[in-house]
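Quick one: structure for this chain?
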Amino acid sequence: MLIEVKSNMNERSNNETKIIEKEVKIIPVKRRMGKNLLGKDVLGEIEWLKVNEIQCAISLNNSKTKKSILVLHVQEKEYQSVIGVDDTIALLQNEDDFFKTDRGFVANLSFMPLLDEKKLKLFYVIGDKRIELNIMSANLDALKSIMQKFLER
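Got it. Here's what it folds into:
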């Protein structure tokens, strides 16, 4: 469930001012606040998150409950998608700049992650954390090609 919000922006050129509309897509999430004494995730209130702020998304499996959750990384914060994992991944991979690297992993390439071809990993360094995304070997060539286009921008 992505929602498009239109916002007006002023753009000045040659002493003229014109208003352009920019679409901002948002997704419902809950902020991950940490763990309680029993080791269970503590989540904040539901809120809206701009899709273009998401650096990467990683699916995590809970071996006890047999359920998956999707963790969205934004700066030094983590959010949990409140809609299904597969649905969120499908929505994200259809957005510009997002690439599904492997099952359960989506990268926003506009944040210029580091690529390790030998280990088939993509890395984001966020604050003092290093986040790793797996890359399916069949996706490596396509990923390298897309990343090259980002470098040429």
